[in-house]
């Protein structure tokens, strides 16, 4: 599946690493995650409990909270790329 | 055959609920309760599906074939608690005789920086808890409720008590937002409550023994408690007839540790323990059972399983097949 994946940016690589570690995904290398593929319900098949764990890990690592009431949540959680862009935009410098 | 509970129509509709409210608020509770008899009869006749479900459930709970009279009593109990929601939320809480049991077990676990996950059920009335909590403004309560399931009733109740309405986490929102909202509430030391005896379609479930045969229970409430490392307390609000309610709080787990790998067996054991507590209270008072669908139905439409490559064995417990 990694042959079709577009290349991850450094920020995306870091987030992919965090995702794989915090969710204990052992069937996939961080680099194999297609940054444009769906995080939830797609090949990766994450569910809402995974989202909660990921949000906790993001808050610990980046010092910034993913909010439940953000109107853009659907697009923020759409893919690794979208989530990474959102984190980079909002994390404290 | 039997529909999923989310597919059943709301009983009565807006007009009936408006009527109940008008009669109740202007004529008083005693007067309104007279109308429960024709209402009960109406539902008994017009809702054969729920009537069959009631009869099957009571037969199971009582250990002998349930009579029509017992089914009528069951429907009457339910209608009475729906009516009481109007009075409970209409700021007439003090008229009720609500006895709290085990409240200390709950308050001892509450901290300003870390809330408690309170698991309710459709056994009895959860409304009595929401209102009891509203009497304690120092306690921040958030309730996960599906406002789309009974829109007419929700609209009415929230109009009666906007204060209580503000504390609702709408279960009609995407699952991710619900769990994040729960996480935020618990992080702020809130008492976050959700109903743990029904799964929505496509939600992961595990079948555990309940009242004599396996029934599907949602796993998310327990996983949320485990991920957020908060104590889990059970809550049962039983209606005893007249104006009396018994509200029970039971500590369930102070720190549920469910490891990511191989947690299927542990998760099943936890859910089984929950089912046993629910069964205990259900057997004490079967007429408080307000799940009007086939609670034991396991083979619902098969949803796609979690996309885990074969042999990865990551999380079998999260299979969505029986959701």
Mean pLDDT of chain B: 83
The helix/strand order of chain B is HHHHHEHEHEHHEHEEEHEEH
Helix fraction of chain A by DSSP (H/I, runs of at least 4): 40-55%
Radius of gyration of chain A (CA) equals 12 Å
Coarse shape of chain B: globular
Main beta-sheet strand count, sense and barrel state of chain B: 7 strands, mixed
Give the total of beta strands of chain A.
0
For the secondary structure, the number of strands of chain B is 9
SSE series of chain A: HHHH
**Subunit arrangement of the protein:** heterodimer
Strand order of the biggest β-sheet of chain B:
1-9-8-2-5-3-4
- The name CATH uses for the topology of chain B is Glycerol-3-phosphate (1)-acyltransferase
Task: Classify the beta-strand content of chain B into a percent band.
Answer: 15-25%
Unreliable stretches of chain B, pLDDT < 50, 5 or more residues?
A: 301-323
Supply Rg of chain B.
20 Å
User: Structural class from helices and strands of chain A?
Assistant: mainly alpha
Give the mean pLDDT of chain A: 88
Estimated share of beta-strand residues of chain A? under 5%
């Amino acid at each position: 599946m990694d042959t079709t994946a577009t290349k991850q940016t450094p920020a995306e690589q870091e987030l992919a690493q965090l995702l794989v570690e915090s969710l204990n995904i052992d069937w996939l290398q961080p680099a194999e995650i297609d940054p444009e593929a769906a995080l939830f319900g797609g090949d990766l098949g994450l569910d809402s409990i995974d989202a909660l764990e990921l949000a906790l890990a993001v808050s610990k690592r980046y010092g910034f909270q993913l909010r439940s009431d953000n109107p853009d949540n659907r697009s923020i959680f759409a893919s690794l790329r979208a989530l990474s862009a959102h984190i980079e935009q909002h994390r404290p410098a | 055959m039997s529909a999923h509970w989310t597919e059943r129509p709301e009983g009565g509709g807006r007009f009936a609920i408006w009527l109940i409210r008008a009669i109740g608020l202007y004529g008083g509770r005693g007067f309104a309760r007279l109308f429960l008899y024709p209402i009960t009869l109406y539902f008994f006749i017009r809702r054969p599906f729920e009537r069959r479900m009631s009869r099957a459930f009571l037969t199971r709970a009582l250990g002998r074939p349930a009579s029509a009279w017992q089914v009528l009593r069951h429907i009457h109990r339910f209608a009475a608690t729906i009516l009481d929601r109007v009075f409970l939320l209409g700021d007439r809480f003090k008229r009720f005789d609500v006895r709290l049991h085990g409240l200390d077990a709950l308050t001892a676990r509450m901290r300003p920086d870390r809330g408690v996950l309170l698991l309710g059920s459709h056994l009895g009335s959860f409304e009595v808890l929401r209102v009891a909590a509203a009497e304690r403004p120092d306690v921040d309560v958030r309730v996960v409720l599906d406002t789309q399931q009974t829109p007419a009733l929700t609209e009415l109740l929230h109009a009666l008590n906007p204060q209580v309405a503000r504390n609702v986490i709408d279960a009609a929102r995407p699952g991710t937002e619900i769990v994040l909202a729960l996480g935020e509430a618990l992080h702020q030391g809130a008492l976050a409550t959700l109903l743990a005896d029904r799964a929505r379609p496509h939600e992961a479930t595990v079948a555990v023994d309940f009242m004599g045969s396996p029934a599907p229970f949602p796993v998310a409430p327990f996983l949320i408690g485990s991920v957020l490392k908060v104590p889990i307390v059970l809550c049962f609000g039983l209606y005893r007839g007249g104006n009396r309610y018994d509200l029970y709080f039971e500590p369930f787990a102070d720190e549920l540790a469910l490891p990511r790998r191989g947690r299927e067996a542990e998760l099943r054991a936890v859910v089984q323990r929950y089912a046993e507590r629910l069964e205990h209270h259900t057997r004490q008072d079967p007429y408080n059972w307000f799940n009007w669908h086939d609670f034991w139905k396991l083979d619902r439409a098969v949803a796609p399983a979690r996309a885990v490559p074969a042999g990865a064995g990551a999380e079998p417990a999260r299979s969505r097949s029986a959701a």
